[in-house]
Amino acid sequence: MKNVFIISCLLTLLFHCQSAKPNKPPISPDKENSQGEDAMVFPKTVEEYLGSATIAAIQKAESGESMTVASRKSQSGSLLAGYPILAKGRTLSKDQVQLFKKLLLDPKSYVFPTAKKVMIAPKYGILLGDVVVLIDPANLLISVPSDGKSKIEDYDPIQAKIQALLKELF
Fold first, then answer.
1. More exposed terminus of the chain, fewer Cβ within 10 Å: N or C?
2. What is the DSSP letter of 140?
3. CA distance 107 to 167
């Protein structure tokens, strides 16, 4: 009798844990031309991640400004890509600009084609010429927003270099 009770509990639990949309196909990271949560296409190259216009803007950047930003977006105040600017940091030196450009454009700086299952919560922002770069050091995420998209990527391979740059700037 005890076994019947356990089996019925397990079956009930299994029935209630079914997806609300049982016929929905699983999320595929390589699906193209999709909408909503199925639109998970991970970049495989720097060109796919940043886009040619952003790459060109990074290449021509000659100056950089650093700032701390709030980790949540806002609709008011002084904003950087929707994130409130909390304080200005140092202006990047020419060497720092060149280093940061090199890091952003190097395919070895990112972990392609994967994505972390965390939301970006930036702490720092760098305006490199006309290009906004948001940095989340807690999750090792970098975002280069453009064309209304966040464009978030892991920067695990260059963690030490980004940390050293941030230490110089703040």
1. N
2. T
3. 23
